[in-house]
Amino acid sequence: TQLLEQSPQFLSIQEGENLTVYCNSSSVFSSLQWYRQEPGEGPVLLVTVVTGGEVKKLKRLTFQFGDARKDSSLHITAAQPGDTGLYLCAGLLTGSNYKLTFGKGTLLTVNP
Amino acid sequence: DTAVSQTPKYLVTQMGNDKSIKCEQNLGHDTMYWYKQDSKKFLKIMFSYNNKELIINETVPNRFSPKSPDKAHLNLHINSLELGDSAVYFCATTGSAMNTEAFFGQGTRLTVV
């Protein structure tokens, strides 16, 4: 059973479009992170959210943590080809120190 | 100057061989990890060391043995390699065991033939 479900698994859009990817669970997380991974590279941390209902913005990227701390979303406005990559959510389960659980990722392709 | 560096980046070897992957970090972090990413991009934790002590050991065959000679290094030795060991192995660090904001290396793509 996958603790963190990401959707969609694949997303191919045109430059300038908006998109949202989702990270859902039936478990409560102490914190949740989003990473972006480009081909041949390791994941790079984008953001950490810790408070239920929290919204964080990073330029054209908006991250939201659900009120119950069971889910999160990543919204990208006016996507650019440079946004192409694998987006991974990762959570720290409540009461589970030290161990991040990763979702399977959303592979985003932004076409020029 | 790379914060988390792994060597080698690519490793092709035959079944049954023994191989090692090395990881070094210059961030001064206390905690280091090995993750395995399969062909479907699923990233799963294997081991974690905090100040040279093993704190996480997931259900990993005992052919895999991590070693941390000091806080800045975490190596992974794999005995009797099998086809199913083919994957990308990532080293990662966090400031402390309580901090989950991870810095990843570039990965080592292991192919067992």
Describe this structure in words.
The complex is a heterodimer of chains A (112) and B (113). Chain A is globular. In chain A, the strands form two sheets. In chain A, strands 2, 4, 5, 9, 10 and 11 form a six-stranded mixed beta sheet that branches. By secondary structure, chain A is mainly β. The model of chain A has no long low-confidence stretch (mean pLDDT 93). Chain A has no helices and eleven strands. Helix content of chain A is 0%, strand content 55%. Chain A has one domain (5-111): Immunoglobulins (Immunoglobulin-like, Sandwich). Chain B is mainly β. Chain B has a single domain, classed as Immunoglobulins (Immunoglobulin-like), CATH 2.60.40. Chain B has no helices and eleven strands. Chain B has strands spanning 4-7, 10-13, 19-25, 31-37, 43-50, 53-57, 64-70, 73-78, 87-94, 103-104, 108-112. In chain B, the strands form two sheets. In chain B, strands 2, 4, 5, 6, 9, 10 and 11 form a seven-stranded mixed beta sheet that branches. In chain B, strands 1-3-8-7 form a four-stranded antiparallel beta sheet, with no helix packed on it. In chain B, strand 4 (31-37) and strand 5 (43-50) form a beta hairpin. Chain B is globular. The N and C termini of chain B lie far apart (33 Å). The mean pLDDT of chain B is 93. Classes of the chains: A mainly beta (112), B mainly beta (113). The interface between A and B is medium-sized, with 23 and 24 residues.
Largest interface: A-B, 23 and 24 residues
N/C terminus separation of chain B? 33 Å
Rg on CA atoms of chain B, Å: 13 Å
For this structure, what is the CATH class of chain B?
A: Mainly Beta
Q: What is the CATH domain class of chain A?
A: Mainly Beta
Low-confidence segments of chain A, given as residue ranges, are none
Count of alpha and pi helical runs of chain A = 0
How is the quaternary structure best described?
Answer: heterodimer
Strand content of chain A: over 45%
